[in-house]
Amino acid sequence: MKILIVYAHPEPRSLNAALRDVATKALTAQGHDVQVSDLYAEGWKSQVDRADFPSLATEERLVATAASKKDFEAGTLTEDVRVEIEKLLWADALILQFPLWWFSMPAILKGWVDRVFAYGFAYGVGEHSDRRWGDRYGEGTLAGKRAMLIVTAGGWEEHYGPRGINGPIDDLLFPINHGILYYPGYEVLPPFVIYRADRFDECKFEPVAERLRERMQSLFSIPPIPYRPQNAGDYLIPSMQLRSELGEENASGFSLHLDRDNERRSLAGPGRNGTQNSG
Ligand code: FAD
Questions:
Q1: Residue nearest to atom 4 of ligand 1 (CA)
Q2: Which residues fall in a compositionally biased region of kind Basic and acidic residues (predicted)?
Q3: Does 261 fall in a domain?
Q4: How many CB atoms lie within 10 A of CB 145?
């Protein structure tokens, strides 16, 4: 299988770099092909601006969505973006790896998403009518592929627990997992999170490296997070509200978009979001 790691850390001797190497070696040892987009090393341009849209006339007002659509369809997006799009189409699995900075990804990685997830490629895909709201949330260009996060955090695991002051880690990562990865179709795997990363030393490293090797072993078999697909009947169109009879009573927020029944089915055997892409 083919795996793309999009990696965002400015220091080649960092903990993140060491963990990236562990993941890469583990995947390569299993016979997979691995490519790494090392955003800092490559000097990735993170901001969206006029320079991204070669066919935009000088006097024309920049509307980023419209310009993205036009240049994506014409194949005229800038070469750095086209190369990353080709890598995404090539890869069976995508890994985003980064240190948690202000409860999210470093700006350079967000800028990679902003520029590479073009209109017509990652959004604005599929039939948009009173029956379907486009191909997104489980459907879309990247459907059938898997994605996951490898994240280091300075905070304690308890601080990211269900009652922790930082908020639950699954909620903090929801905009990335659901909004960025599930949106264009990826099956999203549970994240691999390393807590108290600033306190790391040699004796803490090896057990974490071993857990990471194990996660790389199960990249194509572990059940994904059971997000609800948009177009399978769980949501009303056009309001895109979850049907009132679904979700646990009085539940609200991000967890509503998890299909717990489907999760139970997929743990018991192949299911809607289950193991169809294992291999
Ligand atoms: P490094 O600094 O490279 O290393 C961390 C430790 O691991 C060091 O002690 C180092 O000696 C050791 N180490 C490195 N490599 C190895 C190796 N190969 N073997 C053994 N030990 C090794 N944290 C949060 O929880 N929430 C936040 O919102 C948050 N926001 C932040 C915002 C900013 C701008 C910054 C700079 C930090 C923030 N942090 C936050 C902390 C951040 O998440 C951690 O600093 C980061 O995850 C640590 O990863 P690193 O790769 O940078 O570690």
A1: 15
A2: 257-266
A3: no
A4: 21
Ligand 1 pocket residues where CB is under 6 Å = 9, 11, 14-16, 18, 99-103, 152-155, 197-198, 200-202, 205
Q: Please state the atom number of ligand 1 nearest to the C-alpha of residue 14.
A: 3
Within-domain flag for 250: no
Domain count along the chain: 1
The residue written with tokens 């849209």 in the block is: 53
Distance CA 263, CA 258 (A): 8
Task: Kindly report the CATH number assigned to the domain that includes residue 31.
Answer: 3.40.50.360
Residues 6+ apart with CB under 8 A from 120: 68, 69, 72, 73
In this predicted model, what pLDDT tens digit does every residue of 203-256 receive, in sequence order? 999 999 999 999 999 999 999 999 999 999 999 999 999 999 998 777 789 999
Please give the number of the atom of ligand 1 that sits closest to the Cα of 18.
18
Counting ligand 1 atoms within 8 A of each CB, the residue from 100, 166, 173, 205 with the most, and so the one to mutate, is: 100
